[in-house]
Each structure stands twice: as C-alpha cells, then as structure tokens.
Amino acid sequence: MKCIAAIDQGTTGTRCMVFDTEGRVIAAEYDEHEQLYPHPGWVEHDATEIWDNTRHVIAAALSDARTGPAQIVAIGITNQRETTLVWDRHTGQPLYNAIVWQCTRTLPFCQRLIDGGLEETFRTKAGLPIATYFSGPKIRWLLDNVPGIRQAAEAGDALFGNMDSWLIWNLTGGANGGVHVTDPTNACRTMLMNLQTLDWDDELLEILGLPRSMLPAIRPSSDRNAYGFTQPTGPVGERVPVCGDLGDQQAALFGQTCYEAGEGKNTYGTGCFTLLNTGGQIVPSKSGLLTTVAYSLEPGQATFALEGSIAITGAAVQWLRDNLGLIEHAAETEAIASSVEDAGGCYFVPAFSGLFAPYWDMYARGVIVGLTRYVNKAHIVRATLEAICYQTRDVIEAMRADSGIEPTALKVDGGATVNDFLMQLQADILGVPVVRPTVNETTALGAAYAAGLASGLWSGLDDLKSHWQVDRVFEPVWDEKRRAEGYGGWIKAVARTRDWVEK
C-alpha cells in the first residue's frame, strides 16, 4: 500500500498524518510544545523541542499505521508561517528561540519603517503591510539584539528559516548536508520576496539590512525534483523524498481543492485565516487584506490569493482556559455557549497582538465591553465564539470590496470546526452556508496532496478534487435584522480597542 506522510508543524503543536491513495487518514499523532512568554507581547518557541516532537510523531504515526517506511512514497511539510528561526549551519543549534508570528517585539522597528514612508514599497513588491506579523523585522531584531548572530550571518554561518525550512533541513541531514529551502507560500510572508519575480528582492533586503546568504532557496510548493531525501538513520528510517511544502493556510486552501479563481476557505486554529483564490492575477488590496501566493507547481510560476489573517481566535479559547480558568477543555465551549440565547450584550475583541486584517492596528489591545450584572460565564464564553465569527465576517466584507466576488458558501477546516454550535454561528453571522469537509485537518491533507502530486501518486488537480467530500452544510437561520444588529455592535466594540497603546 502506497502512502503519503504529512508533517503539520503548527503554533501549538506538531502533527504527523499518514494518508492513503484516496486521501483518507490512516494514522495521526500529535504533540504539543510549550508556549514561551518572556515579556508582555513576546511569544517564543523552543525549536529544538519542536524538532524532537517532530521525530516522535513521525515514528508514532508510522507505528500506528502499521506502515513500513518503504510504503511512504513522499513527505509533505506544512507549517506555522512567519515564525522566525536562525540557526548555526555547522552545529545545527538554534542561535535563539523561534520568534512566533504573534510576537509584537518588533513594533518600534516597524513603526520606523512606516514613519520612513516605506509602506507602499512593501505593499507594491511584497503584497504586505508593514507589521510585526511578518518574518523580516523578526530577523532584523535577532541580528540587532542577540550577540553574535549578525557576525555569523555576515560570515555565512547563520541560516534563517520559517519552521518549514527548519524541518526540511533536519529531515534531509541537518548539519550533515541538510537542504536549506522554502517555497513561495512561506517566502512571501517574510516581507522579503517580490511577488512578480517569486525571488528575494534586493531592495527589500537592503531596507531591512539583511544578508541574502542567510536565506533559503525558493522552490515550488510541489517539486517533482524533490528538495532532498530523509536519512535512513532519521525518524522515517528510510530514504524518502521530501517534495511538498506549503505554509499552513495555503496548505488548507490546497487541501480544500480551491483551485479555481473565486474559491475560498477559512481555517480555524490559533488564529483564523481566510483565503480567496485569485488565479494567476496579483490583486492589490485596498481593504486591508494581504496579497499572497496560494501555491506554486512549477518553478517561476504561482497561483495567487487574497488573505485575511486574524491573529487570535482559537487562542482566545485557550486564554479562557489557561488565564481565566473559565473552562477546562475547549470542547466545553459548545455546551456552555449554547446554554444562553445570546451574549447578553457583551462583546469580546481579543486584540492581544493588535488587530490584523482588515484593520492592521499594531497599537490595539483586547477589550470586553457591554458588561452588566446580568452577564455571566456562559455569556463570556459565547462572546468568545462570536468573536471568531465576527472577525471572519470583517475579512469576508473586505474580500467583497477588493474582488467584487459575492461568496455563495464558505469552506471551513481546522480543529474548531468540530464545534457544531460555532459553525452554525458562523453561518448565521455571515448569512451564507458553511461547508465542512469529511477531513477537517485539510492543512495536513494539502501538504500530502502537494507531495503526492510531485511523486506521481496523484495525476493532477482534477484527481485531487475527486477525493474531496462534504461532511455537513450549515445553513444560516438568523434574519437580516438580527445579523445587522449583531455586526453593528461588533464594529462599535472594535472601535474601543483602537490605538490603545501609545505610539
């Protein structure tokens, strides 16, 4: 039996999934890793812990699947994007913890770039606003603040990568010949890649003061030539091509088989990320969205997308659990939220890392508004779920404005989609059906599809479409009056978060 292994390295943990030739899951293993918060607004990960976890979940998934390494025909990688790591090419040791995409430590540097009138340069070339979200300013912070990194980088001894590059480098040999690569979906999230050329841009590198020698080679997301091969002494235990690489949100788009312009999806994870395929057209956004690469199947070619990135959605549920102790498990939110008819006039805007799309306010901070003595725990839990849905509507409204496309449905994936109450709430707040597929971990599925295409396991995009199946469609039931009133209150609540931190 031929199989594909996909490694999904996410913000809160790492998963390995094994798929058969029909795209069905035959094994899955998951390990969480620690979230590090050394200062307010700072978020870090231990990259060594992540690699150790990756090795464990690969071995465990292959064991669970009763699949020998020889049956794995290819490996695909998908990853939390923007999370930034610099490591020593000779020893393989990280030179600092990975700086997570949510981290706001680069705010002063980003503000200097904005004050210098450079926003339009980055928008035009990279399709991105200047924001703490992206990798480039994080690399600059490491070079400026961690002793020895700048010297190592300029000497060619330090390598930069998002987590895809880190895993591929380790899987293919690490310090003993590991391959240093990335794909356009990850490269375009650095503020360093030119969307027109699909290559690193010298002007952007000069603005950020970064040596090009640190950067990985940019290869297609599905590469028939393979990036490299796993080592027989490594966790796979066999020489297997690593030939698929997609940032997590683009992987979900690929796994949802959104291959035509106008098709889109929303992924519910630590944050929420809505992508709309725009085909071969690079669509500049005037409504606060990102212009990004959807996927690349050939060198120098790409399909593009508009993206709405929301920083805190599932992480807000974690906050209820870990910081406030209102719940013990995320799964409890469904019963608690459905025990009340509404949020009791309460709105929660979880702008813990500022506001991402479509507002891009680095100075916003979270608020809970509309509190009265009537509001109880259930109302706050429900307001948290509503915040996920309202933030998604903000992005959908921006996509309507930029593309002129009226969505007729929203494909959804990610861990939170198992919450039927949340999915129904999303349909009600948007006013369009929400479509949940049979395989809701489409991020890993997309990485598997990319690797399977490259290895010839699947013949093309039409072949992949034939495997995608619907689990359930959630139809909206709210009337337009309730929908408009609820969203109007949300807009007022968002206004209360703006410019909270003094510049």
Which regions have little confidence, pLDDT < 50, spanning 5+ residues? none
Major beta sheet, strand line-up: 17-18-16-15-21-22-23
Report how far the terminal alpha carbons are from each other: 59 Å
Total DSSP E strands: 23
- State the oligomer: single chain
What overall form do the CA principal axes indicate? globular
Helix fraction, binned, reads 25-40%
Secondary structural class: alpha+beta
Strand content: 15-25%
User: Averaging pLDDT over every residue, what do you get?
Assistant: 92
Give me the Rg, rounded.
Answer: 22 Å
Largest beta-sheet characterization: 7 strands, mixed
Number of helices: 16
Description:
- The structure is a single chain.
- The protein is built from 16 helices and 23 strands.
- It starts with a strand and ends in a 6-residue tail after the last helix.
- With 503 residues, it is an alpha+beta fold.
- The strands form 7 sheets. A 7-stranded mixed beta sheet has the order 17-18-16-15-21-22-23. The chain has a 6-stranded mixed beta sheet with strand order 3-2-1-5-14-13, sandwiched between helices. A two-stranded antiparallel sheet has the order 4-7.
Topology, please?
Elements: E1 3-9, E2 13-19, E3 25-32, E4 44-45, H1 47-64, E5 72-79, E6 85-88, E7 98-99, H2 107-115, H3 119-126, H4 135-145, H5 149-154, E8 158-161, H6 163-171, E9 181-182, H7 184-187, E10 193-194, E11 199-200, H8 202-208, E12 217-218, E13 228-229, E14 241-247, H9 248-255, E15 264-268, E16 272-279, E17 290-295, E18 303-310, H10 314-324, H11 332-337, E19 347-349, E20 367-369, H12 377-403, E21 410-413, H13 420-430, E22 434-437, H14 442-455, H15 461-465, E23 470-474, H16 480-497
Parallel strand pairs: 1-5, 5-14, 9-12, 15-21, 21-22
Antiparallel strand pairs: 1-2, 2-3, 4-7, 6-8, 10-11, 13-14, 15-16, 16-18, 17-18, 19-20, 22-23
